[in-house]
Amino acid sequence: MPDKKVLIPLSGDDVAPRFDLAPEVVVVTLDDDGAVLDERAIVLPSASAEILCRLILDEKTDVVVCGGIDDEYFQYLTWKKVKVIDSVIGRYDEVLRRLAAHALAPGDVIRPDQTSKTEISSRD
Amino acid sequence: MPTNPLVRGLFERPVELLNLLDEIPLGLALLDPQRRIIAINRTLETLTGFVSEEIEGIHCRFVLRSNLCIHDCPLDKVSQLSAPTSVQGNIVNKSRQRIQVRLTASAIEDGDGHVLGFLEAVENLGAVSDRLSAGVESLALKGLVGSSSEIQRIFQILPVIALTDSSVLITGQTGTGKDLVAETIHQLSDRAKGPFIKVNCGALPEALLESELFGYEKGAFTGAVTSKPGRFRMAHNGTLYLTEIGDLPLSLQVKLLSFLDDKTVHPLGSSRVYTVDVRVIAATHRNLDEMVKKDKFRQDLLFRLNVIRLHLPPLVQRGADVRVLLDHFLKLFCARFNKTLKGFSPEAHRILLDYCYPGNVRELRNIVEYAVNFCDGRVIEARHLPQYLTVPIPNEEIEAPEQLNPHEKNNERSLETPDRALPAASLDWADVEKKLILEAMTKARGRKGKAAAILGWGRSTLWRKMKKLGLVGK
């Protein structure tokens, strides 16, 4: 299986509430076992959904994990074969851990008290 | 903290706080001093798509997802001013819709002025903003524009319909403004402060439509990890607009009939029955009477929906309205695209007035949008109009109207409202757009970015239109 490139718009240590208003992103490369091979933070020149879409395509991103996203951009990225896991609420490290464990789904809300020690169960 | 705390001292017996908040037709969020959600009411659940129990303890900016949350949080001002603050902005809900809202925040203090938490009220301004952006208010009711006797009759009757609480059935050809009329009835009615929930009965598969309309309980089926209230319950104290009601499967017609009879909802997997106060407005471009004759639509449901029937005339029957609408959409698109155009040249005006608009107001709007986009001067000339209006198309290039209709395969064409015959030279607007896109893509040698630049659109606009027109490969 090839490595997977993931882009997560951030606001501080959390997944940014809005895709179009995220001030920075982190681009992570995961191997098939979920281990982090590479991790880069990119501060955006200005918050913009168009700029983010371009960056996502330029980076050849496989998966985007984000909070709220306008349908137009969701459909566009999906059409570009980018998997979008949206409406995710939680801290970046925990979200990434769940993603690596194939246990992250759209709409997941990870409360601050749900630490990485919490057992992850599949949604179905 | 209990999931539904009691309020004591106001009434003879304690009452549940959330039940009180649910009755208020305004989105409300109770926050702790750290701005974490304590509870949200049903209206805010409807607006954001989040269920109160799943977001308890989450910071409000992750739930409201407003543009104000980043730089202009009203709660900051409340803390500084010690007074309620009201600001306008937008939110993106779980359905990925952007909604204009007014946020009013106030601090909840004890008797000594210590802040114990916050109350945020979220008012949906979406429909209001759409109307304001229309710009033209004369000869108009809400977003409806026209001066002909046909449309004036609609203007007169709409406030009367809004005053009643009866079911409404709106019929009319595609592009005549059924959605706008339904929303106008809601906005003019006593339910205006309540939600206006739209469901397209033709857009979802039967099983999904049932859970979407009636909701389900947690654990009702695999994947039902949380309870979903369903559109009927979300529309409580408001209006449920069922568009394309003619496409509603027969099994759901029975359930809708049952709801119209007793106003109760039975979510999937739940033994509980919910009584909701919802006005139902339905619309279709199909001829329901014909469908009843062919056993494709229940007669008893038609009788219940047909309490008030409103038929919207096609544009060709609205005489002088074409001129009014041309001016209206010209102003609208000039403002939207930041252009200063004086108007139409006499020739362009003549072509537009002579055209028969089989796609009605929507087609007229699209033509003006196209012309404003492509106009490089101060006046829209004939050459700026879509080619199919100015260049006669040989008969052999034109498909028969039935072949242009996607329902033709299902042999449902005969069930539609009888249309006047399409003139030989009129192509569907979608076909024209498809042709334009293909030409631009050919010029750009398949590069979509360049094709978008040629057309003067953004990449995502080009993609959206390509997807709509079926030009996107799997």
TrEMBL record, chain A:
**Which protein is depicted?**
Dinitrogenase iron-molybdenum cofactor biosynthesis protein
**Any Pfam family:** Nitro_FeMo-Co
Q: What is the source species? A: Desulfomonile tiedjei
Cited SUPFAM superfamilies:
Nitrogenase accessory factor-like
Q: What is the lineage of its organism?
A: Bacteria, Pseudomonadati, Thermodesulfobacteriota, Desulfomonilia, Desulfomonilales
Start and end residues of each Dinitrogenase iron-molybdenum cofactor biosynthesis domain = 12-100
